Fold this protein.
Amino acid sequence: MTSQIDISRRRFVVGSAAAMGGLSLGFSMAFMPEAHAQAAAPAGAKAPPEVNAWVVVRPDETVVIRIARSEMGQGTLTGLAQLVAEELECDWARVTTEYPGPSENLRRNRVWGNFSTGGSRGVRESEKYVREGGAAARFMLVSAAAAAWNVPAAECRVAKGVITHAASGRSTTYGQVADAAARMAPPANIVLKDPKDWTIAGQPLPRLDTRDKLTGKQVYGADLRFPGMLSAAVKACPYFGGRIASYDAAAIAGKPGVRKVVKVDDATLVVVADTWWQAKSALDALPVTWDEGPNAALTSAAIAETLSAGLDAPEAFVGNSSGDAKGALAKAARTVTATYAFPYQNHATMEPMNATALFTGERCEVWAPTQNGEASLAAAAEAAGLPPAQCEVHKLLLGGGFGRRGFQDYVRQAVLVAKAVPGTHVKLLWSREEDMLHGFYHPTTQCRLTGALDEQGNVTALHMRISGQSIMASVRPEAMAGGMDPVVFQGLTARSPEGMLGYAIPNVLIDHAMRNPPVRPGFWRGVNLNQNAVYVECFMDELAHAAGVDPLAFRRKFMAGHPKHLAVLNAVAERIGWDTPAPKGVGRGIAQIMGFGSYVAAAAEVSVASGELKVHRIVAATDPGHVVNPAQVERQVEGSFAYGLSACLYGECTVDKGRMEQENFDTYDVLHMAQMPKVETIIIPSGGFWGGVGEPTIAVAAPAVLNALFAVSGKRIRLLPLKNHPLA
Amino acid sequence: MPRLTVNGQVRDVEVDPDTPLLWVIREQLGLTGTKFGCGIAMCGACTVHIDGVPTRSCALPVSGVDAAQKIVTIEGLSPDGSHPVQRAWLALDVPQCGYCQSGMIMAAAGLLEQNPKPSDADINSEITNICRCGTYNKVRAAIHLAADGGGKAG
């Protein structure tokens, strides 16, 4: 089993939720180069010694920056390299990157820290130690030059990887002193630059990983090829909790290319063949009967009924409480009540799940697009039945992650199949149908909100009762706090730096009746902030209209104590021209939330014609504290509307007869070019903290648009997605 | 045995004639720039050109293509990434995860071949590929940039 992260003791356990195998790992940020331990850099025998764990400088002046987090499109690879390069003072034009291996990290006492890439933590959780890594390498490189010249290091200057000593007129380069630098002592104290002095970090630099994505050269996991490699297609029982009743491998034995049928576990069958298409065709023809299991009668309606009952349940976990909300509501002259619901969503990464594995008996190697290389290693070791030291995971760029690739089920499957054909590389690739049927779905919840209004139109009390699914109860039970899932309350807490409610209301009760249907939930980009923002921001709109107050002015009344929340809200209001009339036939909506440590807001302009919603314009503002690459922040904010509006407009995985109904994009529609609104992004880094960027803005997409829809049509949509509601 | 003309080369492939063109391109010819996304011609990740027309290759049996038809994949769009669409994509740093981008670029190149100055409405109706990262606005801007002869960087 895995256990909770305890950063304070710099010691934690990396767990693979699927494998339930954990590695207990220390976490030591040493800046000693591995050269001291006579170890070669992971790149290969001929690689020059590293200056330290983060930096290798080759004789041709190429600077290799090691990146521990996974790149899945969010730009973290480039951003982290910028942070290291900033302190290193190297020539950005000569920067390249590489992923260290997870087992190398384990062997080196986790010198690269956490590999997990989720929760919008890639930059904010590692910015300090990667900058320190760059600074330490700079110190050692300069020290090496100074020692060779027999001058004080303090008299040397460095710019773009060129070290100069003005007094003696000498200069050298990082590439020339890298060998010697690897033997220098790291600095005792590291003073990082003030972000206002940054010249590489903070700049809108182009990504480092673009070129190969334009020519087909970029190799994703699905594209891997090895000599003699076999391919595997997989089919797991589509019924939640169901299993294989029977199958007839002999029936497909003679099909072209077929090598083997592997029963991976009680619920999963794999066909191994020379090519993937052969494997897939044979798998489609394989006679299988399923034991539909204990949930065969489960439907979305039944799940909704269970959740609905939770809205009235006497028992609930309290996530935020101040004053006496129930008492104040009971005494209130006027209350407003509304019930909202958010359905299951599939991540639908463009690249379906896949992993390639080679098992030899003594070793197991895996090539995988993964959001957590260390969890992949744990899963591989567990499935292989080998110690982690005899396993390695080679990380690849991800064709989308969004939280899905933090789960390791596909890695486990690939290793189990590789064990059935030892000595041979096997690439296991899911079909889209498999991907849709075996997700870790965005959880479904309902929320009943009750607010009390006084005669001045102030909210005097608010009760939010959330009923529904806990992610942590399913995937990380050790993170539960006395049975409660604290992550359920994302964006709604009283004072968490991850996300606090931006409104000062005298009597507040936000509680959660946990109801866990037998559908596995997971972290879906934005996580619980997504539905919580819909609930609180649409309901604030309802309260504003009930009070007869402009929705922006109404919110402002309760935000004096939350200046950062207010600043992003004001920024979008000003840019969209909230104080001026909207264009004819256009409605405006507004929303704000705090999540993943950042403050975000959006304003939307929409219209309805012939029953169709059109989103004309979005203005978004974000305050992530510090900005490492504004061009990438802008792309993440813009992309958040594609993802968030996909969920708002279309996204819904429905359950019937114990399984998901949607199997592909024909029934699981997502946003296309034609529906993509213009997005204007305002970045307001107020400094002093580090917030995430990849996820928070998703949460304001839906409420801004739904509030705008109400403004133009009078229709208040409370049950997502919008496609289920006629607008004509 | 199917015979195909791919990126200017005539290739004989030993494969079941029902095999989708996508899988022949990827597995028999080893050209993995053309991606598998959905298998039902909905997402466009598998877009190639057949006689200049953007075509989704994942649901097209290889038997439906003959050797006289010229198939171009992302690898054959230009020898060195210098196609105006690729240059525009580079200038605007369009991709995020990049997985859909081969198909996007092939769809965009095909559109510009037919319609050198597409309007936003033309782009909406012709570029129906799915991108989950949400690069749509950058894709749109890059198509306009390519149409204007831009994208000189690179």
In short: The first strand of chain A starts at residue 11 and ends at 16. Chain A is about 25% helix and 25% strand. The mean pLDDT of chain A is 94.
